Amino acid sequence: MLRDERLDSILRMLNVKGFATVPQLCAQFGVSPATVRRDLEELSERRLVHRNRNGAVPYQEHHTEASVHFRAAVNAKAKEKIARAASELVEDGSLIFIDSSTTVLSMVSFLNERKNLTIVSNSLMLMTLMKNTCHRLILTGGEYYAPSHAFYGSLAVEGIEAYNFDYAFISSVAVTEEGWAAETLEHSVSVRQAAFGHARRSVLMCDKSKMNLHRPYNIIHIDSLDQIITDDPVYPVNTATPVIRV
């Protein structure tokens, strides 16, 4: 297959699936990871895809929200370290909120080490990941948004506001240079703000790829948080909020 034909095929595959990882593209086209990354770099330069070292999504998805399956593969090792550190904050018997981000959902395997938790979430995927758990699970309900496998809107916010959480764990797609945890989509903000507004302790979990980025909608300023967990060795700086670096 000629390179131009392969590039066209990659675009068609991304438009159908919504995302593709580098290994998937290697298997599909019988080429090396280095070749796939060069292809994705060219498509990215043409503004046809949004890429990272793990794969790509169609360019327009960068302005909405990438599939949860794609996001789960991005910086997976860092997310696991952050999630482990977050889980160590949780005590037996706690009532906690977990959002629909893949960083926070990485906590679920570590929460099996705790006893008698009540976990509230807007994430349908959480219910799948913890279907055999002994913990009490509560789904907020609301308007379903397929790319995130999660619920948003006024009903989701009302469901969250019914509780007083010991901890609210969220992630964001960015932490801006000005110190705001920020989102691409407006509907993602209200759910997270509701959780932080009804929690004794608010925890932001973000890997270094999200630091110093710009996104249009602010959730909360990092100075208003109780804890930040990140693998970034430097950022955020000049904040009074305690930072756990993993």
What are the defining features of this structure?
246 residues; alpha/beta; Arc Repressor Mutant, subunit A; Rossmann fold; 7-stranded parallel sheet; 3-stranded antiparallel sheet; 10 helices; 24% strand
Per CATH, the architecture of the largest domain is 3-Layer(aba) Sandwich
| Rg measurement, Å | 19 Å
CATH topology of the largest domain: Rossmann fold
User: Approximately how much helix is present in the residues?
Assistant: 25-40%
Count the E strands.
Answer: 15
Could you name the ranges where pLDDT drops below 50 across 5 or more consecutive residues?
Answer: none
Count every helix, treating DSSP H or I runs of 4 or more residues as helices.
10
The ordered string of helix (H) and strand (E) elements is: HEHHEEHHEHHEHEEEHEEEHEEEE
Strand content: 15-25%
Give the total of domains. Answer: 2
Q: Strands of the biggest beta sheet: in what spatial order?
A: 6-5-4-9-12-14-15
- What's the rounded overall pLDDT mean? 89
State the distance separating the first and last CA atoms: 44 Å
Q: Determine and state the CATH class of the largest domain.
A: Alpha Beta
Coarse shape: globular
Going by helix content, strand content and strand pairing, the class is: alpha/beta
Short description:
The protein is an alpha/beta fold.
Structure description:
With 246 residues, the chain is of the alpha/beta class. It folds into 2 domains: 61 residues, Winged helix-like DNA-binding domain superfamily/Winged helix DNA-binding domain (Arc Repressor Mutant, subunit A); 171 residues, Translation initiation factor eif-2b, domain 2 (Rossmann fold, 3-Layer(aba) Sandwich). It contains 10 helices and 15 strands. The strands form 4 sheets. A 7-stranded parallel sheet has the order 6-5-4-9-12-14-15, sandwiched between helices. α2 packs across α3 and α9 packs parallel to α10. It is globular and about 60 Å long. The model has no long low-confidence stretch (mean pLDDT 89).
